[in-house]
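Quick one: Type IV pilus assembly protein PilM from Duganella lactea, structure tokens please.
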Amino acid sequence: MIDLKRLLGQRQPPLVGLDISTSCVRLVELVAAGKGAAGYRLERYAAEPLPRNAVTDGNIENLDQVVDTVRRVWKKSGTRARHAALGMPPASVITKKIILPAGMSEEQLEIQVESEASQYIPFALDEVSLDFDVIGPAANAADDIEVMLAASRREKVEDRVAVAEASGLKATVMDIESYAARAALARVVAQQPDGGAGRLVALFQIGAQVTHISVLLDGAAVYEREQPFGGDTLTEDIGRAYSLTFDEAEARKKTGELPANYHAELLTPFLDSAALEITRAIQFFYTSTPYSRVDQLFLAGGCALVPGLLELVASRTRIASAVISPFDGMQIGTSVRAAQLRLEAPAYLVACGLALRRFG
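--- reply ---
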């Protein structure tokens, strides 16, 4: 029944967070740093771009290309850790909170969870990797417990395990990318006055093809959604305008080595579209939930530091906005270049959250 149980249950140090996204593989290694700096030190981090279409919609399409990229990023980072925490795309995982009677043994609980799972999973159970976690006592029911059920197609889990093993690593933890991002965000929010208690915090992770939206209250997600918008839109516009391949356009986008008309004709319309997507998402949150405010908005992902985006989003939404660094409040290892980290940190939210599983 429970393939993910073995993966989710073990947390063996040292361990790296390994984020395999559509466009890039990112690695983070954290170590304990004592009582100061929130207890963590960023020891190493690194990234390597993936060949286009090696990963599509969260699915690993070219195993060899992904393995080669993981090997390069592991070597580039300088880590010796062989245990890795990986993430599954949210769209690949079904999660459901269920209520079960308290007082059952572990074996009884597993049997009951499997029985309940068949009601929510549209696949045969022998095709699924299934796990669960007891959250705690159920609200308003002293004799019941609340249990989080997580299930994914077995082949999707096995693909990521295969990548790790072929790269010389051991998949010790299999998380959900959105949960990892929320863990990293929660650590940052906890540093705010009163630990951020009672504040509604919206997170926009702008990826290559998809923007993932989460709204959290006291560390718990009250709203999640994905929108088909990402940084590849700008890359494709650059390629068409200047007759460049996708890889050439991506490289020029990052270095800024583009003609003088780039800002007016391509960047400004992209920023307008991004700000409009974010504003619409906030309005949809207001109309589809009981909430009518957002106290803080964070941008993350590779596009978060595109010049002008933060200011435009803050102006359009009229919400206090910032670009998040998941490493705020941490000590920085001697091998990490602080200036470079400031430019790259927003893209490492998921990898940082995965690396935090070492201390779970």
